[in-house]
Amino acid sequence: MPGLELDLHSHLVPGVDDGSRGGPETVAMARGLARLGVRRVHLTPHQYRFGNEFTPLDARAQAARVRELLTRAGVALEVEAGAEYYYGSRLLEALERNEALVASAVGTERCVLIELPFDKPVVGVRRVGIALRRRGLRPVLAHPERLGALLPDRPRLDEWRRAGWQFQLNLMSLAGFHGEEPRAAATALLREGLFDYVGSDLHRPADLDALERAHETWRRLEPKRVHA
Q: What CATH homologous superfamily does 6-221 map to?
């Protein structure tokens, strides 16, 4: 089914954030993704959060490490370097200074995945989208269905899309993994064709059961617009 072969958002890099705690967990999660039909996974450890700050060169080294782990384990899964940027003062500073950002390749696009805070309002999102597009980068908003206070404000989401933003669904939201409100929002927005990409946001092997249920729900909904 279109979309499920590409996982744009995961935390499989061992020992760098609140995701994989070591090589065995990385391999177990990758094996689970491959079993579900995922062919390509983007490694998106937290950036500018949990004390993390790494360069594009660091991200490529992280990807090389994961590829080596998967090759040794015999897991047939493509790996792409990336990051999940936290939207805050450090990101705005990086843009102001024209610092090199960690971008993931998706077809002809170079995508920058960005997470908004759950607990406080944000400003400047439209401006950031325009700035990234001018640099030849595609801003992708991580899991908007989890931003409860924002969801009733559809004109705002539409404004961000006009500024160049695309949207990534956390598949496990469809299984209620993040609560009932994100589940309902994910289902509604998916039916409206809001999402451009999907991701597992996978942190632990124990989450694979919920991800499998989410894949089943996805297929029942027959979504549109999401990239293959």
A: Metal-dependent hydrolases (3.20.20.140)
